[in-house]
Each structure stands twice: as C-alpha cells, then as structure tokens.
Amino acid sequence: MDPITVIRSRTVVMPSSNIDTDQIIPARFLTTTVRDGLGVSLFADWRYDRDGRPKPDFVLNQPAAQGCQVLVAGRNIGCGSSREHAPWALLDFGIRVVISTEIADIFRSNSLKNGLLPIVVDEVTHEWLLANPGVEVEVDLPASVLRLPDGREVAFPIEAFSRYCLMNGIDELGYLLSQAEAIERYERAREGR
Amino acid sequence: MTAKSLFEKVWERHIVVPESADTPAILYIDLHLTHEVTSPQAFDVLRARGLKVRRLDRMLATMDHSTPTDTAQIFGGLPIRLESAARQVRQLEVNCAEFGVDLIGLKDARRGIVHIIGPELGATQPGKTIVCGDSHTSTHGAFGALAFGIGTTEVGYVLATQCLLQRKPKSFAVNVGGRLPPGVAAKDLVLAIVGRIGVNGGTGHVIEYRGPAIEALSMDERMTVCNMSIEAGARAGMIAPDATTYAYLKGRPLAPAADAWERAVADWDSLRGDAGAYFDKSVSIEASELEPMISFGTNPGMVTTISGNVPVRPGDAVFARSLAYMGLSPGDRMAEKPVQVVFIGSCTNARLSDLQAAANVLRGRKVAKGVRVLVVPGSQQIKREAEELGLAKVFQDAGAEWRESGCSMCLGMNGDLVDAGQYCVSTSNRNFEGRQGTGARTLLASPASAAAAAVRGRVTDPREFLG
C-alpha cells in the first residue's frame, strides 16, 4: 500500500450521520474475489439512478469532488458490516483520509490496514468542516495534526503502531510473522504440546 | 486481587505478547470461522507471500452468503443462477483444497450460516477467542467467548499466524432486570437495547449482558441478543456461561467429551465475572416493561414499539431523509402499515426456536394475499429438524416459501431480494438503505412479529395470536 506522510487536499463533504458500510459499497458488489476496481461502485445506490446514470446532484459526481483525497463525513461513519470492500472502494476512488466525530471499530481497523487514514475530530472542528466544504486542508501524519486553512492545528489520535505502518506503507503481517517464536511458546504452554 | 470481568478473563488468557506504548497486544485466536465473501483476497495474500495456514485444526470454513436457497440449485443439478456468486463459491472450494482447509461445502449436511453452525457443531465454546470476516461474529459471545468480526486483511493474519494485533477494548455492562413478558422476544429486547444506546453507543467497547432477564434466556435467545451487539457499534457482546450454556453444548460433535467435559466445565465456571469487576460504562434496562418492537428507519437504532408511532424530530435533516427513504412520516402509527414481503431467517433469528415461534402464529392460518413470505432456516440441520417437527409443513400450508439454509434475504447477495419500495418485515439485523435490495424498506422485528405481519399483511402485534 502507498505510504502516507503529508496529504494536502480539498475536502469533499457528506454530512449524513451513521453512514454504514452497506452504503459505502452495497452487498451486490461483494461477490468479487479481488480488491481492485471497486471505486466505480463506491456509494452506488446514492450515486447512480436506476439505469446506472450518475445523479448530478450527488456530491461525488460533482466536478469539485474530483481529485479530493479527504472525505468529511457526518457523525459516526462505517457502522455495520465488516466488509473491507468499503475502504478498498474509497481508496480506489482516490480517498486517502476520512474525517468524522466517530468511526466504527471494524471500519477503522480495515482502513488503517489499507492506507486509508481515519481521523476523529472534536465537534467544533467537525461542524466547521461540514459548514465549509471544499476547503484545502493539510493532514500531517508524522505530527498527527490536521491543519485548517485559517492556520488552526487540530491534533488527532492515532495508535503508534498503526501510524508507523501507514507512514511506511506496510501491513502488520511482517511483524506478526516475526513473533513466531512467542506464538509457538504460547501454543505449547496452552496445549501442553 | 483485582476483581475481573468475564471479558478481562478471556482477554488475558489469550495474550501472546502484552501491549506496550509502541505495539498493541498479540492476541491468540482459538477458532477462525471462514466464508466465501471475505476470504478470497486473504488466501491471495498467503499465495503471494508463500505462506501456509498455520492451524488448520482451528478453522471452520463454510459458504453461506452467496449460496442459493433454491433446492434445485444446490441438490437438483441446476447451476447457481448468479454467475458472480457461483464464481465466489468455486473460489472458496479451490482455496480450501489448495491450503488443506476442511470445507463444509454446498451439499454438506452440516452446512448453514457460519454463526449458526459454529454453536450447533459445538465448536463455539466458553472462554474461546473467535473471529470471522463477518461483523455478526458477536453472536458467539452468547457462550462466554470473546468473538468479533474482522476484515479480510486480518483474516489473512489469522490464517498465517493464528493471531491479531489488538488494543484492549473498553468494557460496557448492559444490566437487564426482571423477566421478558409473554409474547416479548429476545429480538425485542435487543432492538430495545440498540434503540437505547444507539448505533454508536458501544463503539470501542465489549458489552457484557447481565442480570436476571439475561440468565433466564435460552441459548438461542442469548445468541439473538449477542448477534446484534455490533448494531450498537460494540466490538463484541458476551454472556457468562452457566448451566444453560453447558446443557446446550453437551454431546455436540466438537464439544469436549468424557473426562475432558468435566474439566472443561470446571474451567468455564471460573470465567464468570468477579463481583465488583470494573466496567467503563453501564446501562440498566427493565425487561418486564418491554413490548414487541419494530424498526422504522434506516439503522437498527431507529426503533419503536409495534403499538407506537414514528418519532417527531423537527429540524433533523438526516432523520427526515431516513423517513423519506422509508416512505414514513413523523407521528405515523407503525401498527397496520401494509407490508409486501416477510423474511424469517438470518444469523439473528433462524434457529429452531425462532422457526417454532413463527410457526405458532402461522399454524392453521394463511399468509395474507399479495404477501411474499420466505422462511430460510439457519442451517441444514435446523431445516431437517423443522421438517421432522412438522414446522416446514406449517409454513408451506400457510403459503410461505420453505428454502435451503443461508444468509439469503438478510443482504440479498444470492439474489433473494426485496423490490424497490416494498416493505419487508424481516427477522434479520440491519435495516440500512438498500440492504435487502435497492430501494427496499426493511422493518426489523422478531419471528413472531414477522409471522403476524405475514398473516395480516400489515404490521401486527404478535400478542394478538397468543393463547
């Protein structure tokens, strides 16, 4: 996956609260056996009409949204299904950062493992971002800071190990495999082998 | 010694390497459930890195999401109608054969929804850590296991290392006092709980359900409650193991037997939370005050009583949008709303007692004209039992469709879909927009409530059919 350090981008804003992973990628697209090519199906039921034509009033279909890497969502995004197809679809569309007041556990975990940075911000910052769609922000992962155009710096929490993986574009499997001895020791002790 | 909760005890037993400021804990996984939807890309990672499955003996693999419920497509030699679903089923067969995983395949008599067959086979046991690339893995917490859903990348980690990196979640006590009144189901209880704490109320937490109303529940009912923990955003939901748990497990194919059984029970007894254990959060609910529930909106926290009305929330644009999708207005009465489809099934409510509850309403009655009723047992074993008990005949005589087991219309991946604009009273777990089909309108309810809606063709309090 691509490493993340500093991302500068305009925001695209979807103010709905509790956006669930069924919206991000509806179940009928989950019969795929690969990770690629899901961007076209991102938010499919909100984005296209019955005949598959893009709805011009949907935010991701508007010219201003093209090339945006930062999605600001309403309160609490990612609830529901564990489908990793949700972050895969967002990334394939070009989104690298998701900002909300709350991010559901499994979606957050899946995002971190694929180079999609989930950022939880305070209510005031969130309100401001919702009210000012399209502003240019700077996401500084090494400093764990979100910089707003008026110069404000908003620190965001991120687990140290996840940050290391994101900045280096690596997953956690290498680290887990390096712990094989500890795992074997645990198995021997538990199973009396 | 510090008093510990059930969750803390199970957590601590599985620490391979403790967490530090720099690294999360390495948590050992006792049982890895696998299905066709969230595993193909994980097997690809193993292939790409030249890795093997570390513990084939700690896996239980089956197919449930994309599989047809039409008998002819499983046993009758007809091809699976949806080509992409057929491909996914084949891919799981190929992956399991290549990596040596024992697969409970399409025609296997043990097949069913993964969260139903795990307990049914006795693989789900108290004190285990259980994961699956599926959010409803929380179901298995009913046995006092720590069970949670993971994504496909983590499925790959577990395949390769039998471990996950995890920060310890917080704990959340849901205390349920009293007893559920007659005609009020476990599903009504958990809908009330999700309504109370909200779809994000449990984020970052593991719920432990406690209290006399929980202790009085059967294992089937406990599974219904724990199943929907994820709908409150919780990482997992747990219930302390007790005599009810042991009675359910004893004699199941994968449960400990003979001397090992006695040792296991003694060990499981020690898992119960200590008096005075700390919880980061708690909430109390009185079961005896509950009524049959139904959802009215587009997330499982948007619920009311069947006798109740759609709430009025002026100025809430998101709420208004949700009601617009549902074709409902603030203040609308839920009872008497016409419905076109009824779905009785899913990992929430497709166990034998769920089918019995539905059959008790449908026995000797007919499905209302113009209503399509799909009854999908949770496993092939439940299907056989329901047929032996005459439940299948009750459903068929009433005019319902009796199908092969699977996830089916809960999420419609296999083509069992609700049409746009139709109302479906569903015993499943999610009423998200489009969940049961593009434009479908889901009303979550218990099996008895679903059956009552099938008979009347309208949202109906199932207590009208009691006694």
Q: How many independent structural domains of chain B?
A: 2
- Average pLDDT confidence of chain B is 97
Number of domains of chain A: 1
Label the overall shape of chain A: globular
Number of beta strands of chain B: 19
The CATH class of the largest domain in chain B is: Alpha Beta
CATH topology of chain A: Aconitase, domain 4
CATH architecture classification of chain A: Alpha-Beta Barrel
CATH class membership of chain A: Alpha Beta
> How would you classify the helix and strand content of chain B by structural class?
alpha/beta
**CATH-assigned homologous superfamily of the largest domain in chain B:** Aconitase, domain 3
Count every beta strand of chain A, where a strand is a DSSP E run of 2 or more residues: 9
What's the arrangement of secondary structure elements?
The complex is a heterodimer of chains A (193) and B (467).
Chain A: E1 6-14, E2 19-20, H1 21-24, H2 44-47, E3 70-73, E4 77-79, H3 85-93, E5 97-100, H4 105-112, E6 117-120, H5 123-131, E7 136-140, E8 145-147, E9 153-155, H6 160-168, H7 173-178, H8 180-191
Parallel strand pairs in A: 1-3, 2-4, 3-5, 5-6
Antiparallel strand pairs in A: 1-7, 7-8, 8-9
Chain B: H1 6-13, E1 15-17, E2 25-28, E3 31-34, H2 40-49, E4 59-62, H3 71-74, H4 83-99, E5 103-104, H5 114-120, E6 129-132, E7 146-149, H6 152-161, E8 163-166, E9 170-177, H7 186-197, E10 205-210, H8 212-215, H9 219-227, E11 236-238, H10 243-249, H11 258-269, E12 281-286, E13 293-295, E14 303-305, H12 317-326, E15 341-344, H13 352-362, E16 372-375, H14 380-388, H15 391-398, E17 401-402, E18 423-426, E19 441-444, H16 447-456
Parallel strand pairs in B: 3-4, 3-6, 4-5, 6-7, 9-10, 9-12, 10-11, 15-16, 15-18, 16-17, 18-19
Antiparallel strand pairs in B: 1-2, 2-8, 13-14
Helix pairs in contact in B: 2-6, 7-9, 13-15, 13-16
